[in-house]
Amino acid sequence: MKKNLCLVAGLFLLIFVWANTGFAADKIGFVNMQEVIQNSAAGKKAAEEFKGLLAKKQESIKAAESELKKMKDELDKQASVMTASARSDKETAYQRKLRDYQILVDDTNKELQKRDQEYSQKLIPDILKTVRAIGEREKFTLIMDYSTMPVPYHDKAADVTKKIIEEYNKAQNAKK
Q: Mind listing the domains of the chain with CATH numbers?
């Protein structure tokens, strides 16, 4: 009986000690990685490069679009006076041009998406180094990115996004 009582008391003591260490104050931080990428100096530079590429691509798409519209208008205006074979040839040429236009738009969208991912992937390793450095220095147990996964609630005081942007910018300036 004494053995069982000592065993229960020891088990109770172990559970009590374990529970107290489990409730220790963990420091958890939150970061919005998208905001860091968009608002950091390196991210803004990448965005400018992307906008330049986007403008070039949009020019070529608009040129193809206006040529396509011109062909369609010409086809519509001349359809009543054309022979059946001439109209068929023009419609075939228009369909080819339309298909080329659709392929151009699709390829451009894919290229822009790929380029956007490349820019982000180039920035992320250095941003993560900054996050780790802040986490270690300020004794965070965990820093979560709330831009990629929904977090129903987080304390705004625990948001370290601005601090990460500042330190990341300093680290990038030091590299130059």
A: 26-175 (3.30.910.20)
